[in-house]
Amino acid sequence: MASENTWWRDPALGQARELDVSGGRMRAFVTGEGPPVVFVHGALVNANLWRKVVPRLAGEFQCITLDMPLGSHELGMPDADLSPTGLGDLIADAIGALGIEPPTLVGNDTGGGLCQIALSRHPDLAARLALTSCDAYENFPPRFFKVLLWPARFPALARLLFQPFRIRALRGMPTAFGWLMHSKLDERAGDSYVLPALESPPAGVDFARFMRAVDPKYTMTAIAKLRSYERPVLIAWSRDDRFFPPADGERLAADFPNARLEWIDDARTFSMEDQPERLAELIAGFAREPAEAVA
């Protein structure tokens, strides 16, 4: 039986929608009106990652937050391709199922790597791309997590690995969320990140399938294709990141032909937790500019 907060999603994310995508159904949360902005989270978190940014944008934009099958999700996807390319295609499927115009696509952490893969395979998918601190190049995943999460390739071992983090006080450890953010993680959001892989076998199995497939070859192949991607790109990188070095942000800004780099001070990987106002301001300004004028 799931605990109280296992499937909690912040009401600020909006109305839940279930989308028919290749291999199953996935959930998205929709709020606001205006040009669409689609948010993609990384591994072992869910749509709640964006709960502090979405309400700052929903007065001007239609904000769509995907719940990706990356271990903290409710809808199991046993028939879906959960390799990195398969997940990139799921992002494209979800945008198609939503029936929206090409959006501003925003990715963080693993989700940023998946956004790169999605656009390398579907270059007309988005009008713009915004990458916060995220997987790229050889960091897919970063070595720290590659070692730490090796047991998660096997659902039974994953449950043993994650079991201590039922204790909320332990979630600030470096092996949990401590090095991903300066701020303290909200208990309800933390429950929704940790508990699904412990209480829902489909969530654990889906995550294990992804972990067995993840490899830097996917992000290296993606960036090779994206060096000719001419649509606007915003690199909004955290200065204090422990896993995605500033050099990766600079490298991405140099590799995309039409990119600019903005730094987010006093933030680690989860800048949407540490500096949501600054991140929302950057995304809003980027999404307002005519696509052909952004450089």
Notes on the protein architecture:
- There is one protein chain.
- The chain is of the alpha/beta class.
- It contains 11 helices and 8 strands.
- The protein has helices spanning 54-57, 84-98, 110-121, 143-148, 155-162, 187-199, 201-213, 216-226, 246-255, 271-274, 276-288, and strands spanning 15-21, 24-31, 36-40, 62-67, 104-109, 128-134, 233-238, 259-264.
- The protein has an 8-stranded mixed β-sheet, with helices on both faces.
- Helix 2 (84-98) packs across helix 3 (110-121), helix 5 crosses helix 7 and helix 6 crosses helix 7.
- The radius of gyration is 17 Å and the shape is globular.
Question: Care to give the gist of this entry?
Answer:
By secondary structure, this protein is an alpha/beta fold. The chain has helices spanning 54-57, 84-98, 110-121, 143-148, 155-162, 187-199, 201-213, 216-226, 246-255, 271-274, 276-288; strands at residues 15-21, 24-31, 36-40, 62-67, 104-109, 128-134, 233-238, 259-264. It contains eleven helices and eight strands.
Explain the layout of strands and helices.
Blueprint: E1 15-21, E2 24-31, E3 36-40, H1 54-57, E4 62-67, H2 84-98, E5 104-109, H3 110-121, E6 128-134, H4 143-148, H5 155-162, H6 187-199, H7 201-213, H8 216-226, E7 233-238, H9 246-255, E8 259-264, H10 271-274, H11 276-288
Parallel strand pairs: 3-4, 3-5, 5-6, 6-7, 7-8
Antiparallel strand pairs: 1-2, 2-4
Helix pairs in contact: 2-3, 3-8, 5-7, 6-7
